[in-house]
C-alpha cells in the first residue's frame, strides 16, 4: 500500500520474508515456550500468506501471535512506518521493523513518496522527525505536481482565548474560499485544550465536533463540575446539583442519597431542605447524620467564598478544587469561565452558569463540521486544512516525556504525525501565556519549531 492512502501518509516500508528464512532465525525476542507446537497442530496449516499492516504499532504479545501465524509455505509481509510509531505507552516499539528485517534477513521495499501533503508540509514535517536520535536516515519527498504549495504558518497568540479566536477566524476564511468544514481539523495534545476552542468556534458560528473522547465520560465530568459551581453560586441550589455533590461527600453513599431524594419527594420540598437536621429521615445512622452536617458546612463555605471573591475565575477554580474535580475538567471549565468573563466584563458566576452548556459533542461523521481531536486520535486521517494547537514546551514535547532521548524522539514522531495529516494548509500555534488552574504562567514555544527553517512563515 503506498503512502497517501488511509493510514499511510509518509514513507512506510514493505518488509517480507519466506517461512524458510523465518525458521532459520530466532524470533526477534518474541518466541514463547510451546508456541511451535500450536503452529504445528493448527494455525500454520490453514494460512498461505500473512500480511500485517501498521506493523510499527505492534506490541510484543502481537509479535508472538505473528510467530504462530507464519505459514509453512508462503510469505509473511509487514508494512509500517517507524516515523509514525507513537504508541510506545501501550507497548509498541519503534524499532520493531528494524528487528524484523535483521532477524529474518527480509527484503525491504521503501516507499519514499508522500502522495498526501504539499512539498512545504512534507519538508517541515521531515525536518522535525529527522532529528530523532535513533532513526535510520531516509529521504521523504512529495509527489511532484510542480508546485510547493502554501508555507506552513506558525502563529503566536497572547493566550488561549486569543489563540482560539485566531483559529476560528482562519477556519472561517478557509471556508469562505470554498473548503468544506468537514475537510478541516484542529489537533491538540490533551482534551483539556479543547474548551476555549469550542467556545470560540461556537461564537464564530463554525460547526464542530470533538472526537476521541467518550461523550458520556466528558459530559459526566462537566456535569459534576457544573453541579459544584451551582451549589456555590446559588443560595437555593437545584436538586441535581445537591444530589451530585452530596454523592461525592465522605461518608455518604448512593443509598443515602436515594433515601434523601425519596424524602424530598414525599414532603414535596427541595432536596437542600431535607438536609436540615430537623428534616432528616429518622432511619439515618448517626455517622451519616454527621457526614451530612459536614456537607452542609462545606456548602456554606463555598457560597461564602463566591460572595466574597470579586475574581470570578479564581472563585470558580477554588470551588472546583475543593470539590475534588479532576485536573482536566478543572482546567477546561476555568478556561471557559475566563473566556466568558473576558467577553462579558463584570459577569457573575451565576450568569456564566446560565449560559454554559456541556452539550458540545457530536458523534455524527457525515455532517459538515470541523473535527477536533487529539494528535494520537488523528493518526490515519487526512484533511485539507489542519491546525495543530498548543505546540509549546510542556505539551509538545509533553513535560512527562522528556526524561530520555527515546521519549523525546517519540514526541517528535507525534508532531510529525500531526503535521502530515494536512494535505494543503498547515498551521501551528503556540501562546505566550498558558492557563493553569486559575493562573496564567508564561509559556515557551516547542523547541521542535526551531527545526522548520524556510518551510514556515512565522507571525
Report on this structure.
The chain is of the alpha/beta class. The protein is built from 16 helices and 13 strands. The protein has helices at 19-24, 35-46, 60-69, 96-104, 119-129, 160-176, 194-203, 215-233, 239-246, 254-266, 271-274, 286-308, 312-322, 327-343, 349-355, 405-419; strands at residues 13-17, 49-52, 75-80, 107-110, 113-114, 141-142, 152-157, 184-188, 208-210, 370-374, 383-388, 422-431, 456-458. A seven-stranded parallel β-sheet has the order 9-10-8-11-12-7-13. A four-stranded mixed β-sheet has the order 2-3-1-4. It has a two-stranded parallel sheet with strand order 5-6. Strand 5 (113-114), helix 5 and strand 6 (141-142) form a beta-alpha-beta unit. Helix 6 (160-176) packs across helix 7 and helix 7 (194-203) packs parallel to helix 14 (327-343). 42% of the residues are buried.
Amino acid at each position: 500500500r503506498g503512502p497517501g492512502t488511509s493510514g499511510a501518509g509518509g514513507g512506510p516500508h514493505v518488509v517480507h520474508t519466506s517461512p524458510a528464512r523465518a525458521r532459520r532465525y530466532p524470533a526477534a525476542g518474541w518466541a514463547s515456550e510451546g508456541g511451535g507446537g500450536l503452529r504445528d497442530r493448527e494455525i500454520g496449516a490453514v494460512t498461505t500468506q500473512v500480511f500485517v499492516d501498521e506493523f510499527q504499532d505492534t506490541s510484543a504479545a502481537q509479535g508472538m501471535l505473528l510467530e504462530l501465524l507464519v505459514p509453512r509455505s508462503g510469505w509473511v509481509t509487514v508494512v509500517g512506518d517507524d516515523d509514525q510509531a507513537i504508541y510506545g505507552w501501550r507497548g509498541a516499539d519503534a524499532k520493531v521493523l528494524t528487528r524484523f528485517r535483521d532477524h529474518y534477513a527480509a527484503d525491504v521495499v521503501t516507499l519514499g513518496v508522500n502522495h498526501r501533503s504539499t512539498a512545504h508540509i512534507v519538508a517541515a514535517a521531515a525536518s522535525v522527525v529527522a532529528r530523532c536520535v535513533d532513526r535510520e536516515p531516509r529521504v521523504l519527498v512529495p509527489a511532484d505536481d510542480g508546485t510547493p504549495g502554501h508555507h506552513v504558518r506558525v502563529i503566536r497568540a497572547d493566550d488561549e482565548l486569543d489563540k482560539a479566536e485566531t483559529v476560528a477566524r482562519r477556519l472561517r476564511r478557509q471556508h469562505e474560499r470554498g473548503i468544506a468544514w468537514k475537510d478541516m481539523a484542529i489537533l491538540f495534545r490533551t482534551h483539556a485544550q479543547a474548551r476555549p476552542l469550542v467556545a470560540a468556534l461556537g461564537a464564530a458560528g463554525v460547526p464542530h465536533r470533538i472526537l476521541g473522547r467518550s461523550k458520556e465520560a466528558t459530559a459526566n465530568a462537566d456535569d459534576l463540575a457544573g453541579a459544584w459551581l451551582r451549589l456555590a453560586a446559588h443560595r437555593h441550589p437545584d436538586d441535581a446539583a445537591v444530589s451530585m455533590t452530596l454523592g461525592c461527600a465522605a461518608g455518604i453513599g448512593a443509598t443515602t442519597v436515594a433515601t434523601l431524594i425519596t424524602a424530598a419527594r414525599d414532603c414535596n420540598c427541595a432536596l437542600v431542605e431535607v438536609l436540615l437536621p430537623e428534616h432528616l429521615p429518622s432511619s439515618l445512622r448517626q455517622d451519616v447524620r454527621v457526614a451530612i452536617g459536614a456537607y452542609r458546612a462545606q456548602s456554606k463555605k463555598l457560597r461564602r467564598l463566591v460572595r466574597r471573591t470579586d475574581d470570578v475565575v479564581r472563585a470558580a477554580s477554588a470551588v472546583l478544587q475543593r470539590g475534588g474535580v479532576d485536573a482536566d475538567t478543572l482546567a477546561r471549565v476555568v478556561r471557559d469561565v475566563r473566556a466568558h468573563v473576558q467577553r462579558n466584563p463584570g459577569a457573575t458566576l451565576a450568569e456564566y452558569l446560565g449560559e454554559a452548556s456541556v452539550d458540545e459533542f457530536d458523534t455524527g461523521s457525515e455532517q459538515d463540521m470541523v473535527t477536533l481531536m487529539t494528535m494520537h486520535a488523528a493518526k490515519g486521517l487526512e484533511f485539507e486544512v489542519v491546525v495543530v494547537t498548543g505546540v509549546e514546551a510542556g505539551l509538545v514535547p509533553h513535560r512527562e516525556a522528556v526524561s530520555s532521548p527515546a521519549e523525546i524522539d517519540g514526541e517528535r514522531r507525534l508532531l510529525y504525525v500531526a503535521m502530515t495529516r494536512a494535505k494543503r494548509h498547515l498551521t501551528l500555534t503556540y501562546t505566550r501565556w498558558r492557563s493553569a488552574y486559575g493562573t496564567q504562567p508564561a509559556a515557551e514555544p516547542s523547541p521542535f519549531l526551531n527545526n522548520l527553517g524556510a518551510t514556515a512563515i512565522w507571525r
